[in-house]
């Protein structure tokens, strides 16, 4: 995957994305994820790779200061439609190079983004950088199991799936990299498809 190719792919995905990732099991997964999240009124929240804004319906937008970024202007356009006039700051931006100062947000949320960007480790480093000390990072994404090897079929089709704009062979434990020493893991639980998709909550030290 590379950033230019992702722009092409997600231009194609934008009109149909919600049919796959904002309904049925994915909608229920998001409902479950956010049911236990406790925002404080006035919290600054950053959505990294907001996509079509499928998370908006699950958070109290009017009580928060929300910024949403995406590399695809087509996905951002869909997210703006979904926001329905709510006060959200939308910006076209690369998740691997966030244009915000250190320690800017109380919450950074990455739904289905680390497995999409060319360099998930760099994107996670940026999420850690811009969240405040004691602030939280909420991740919802697909990762290979913590232990054991990926099955041979997934290994074979991984390059093909990457051409469609996502990675089915990403290890969260590996992309933690240098971020590992800057956060504590508060939750790591399987949330969808027998744990293939996980909810991970990090807190910055």
UniProtKB/TrEMBL annotation:
This is Methyltransferase domain-containing protein. One of its GO terms (biological process) is methylation. The keyword Methyltransferase applies. One of its GO terms (molecular function) is S-adenosylmethionine-dependent methyltransferase activity. It holds the Pfam family Methyltransf_11. Residues 48-139 form the Methyltransferase type domain. Keywords: Methyltransferase, Transferase. InterPro entries: Methyltransf_11, SAM-dependent_MTases_sf. It comes from the Bacteria.
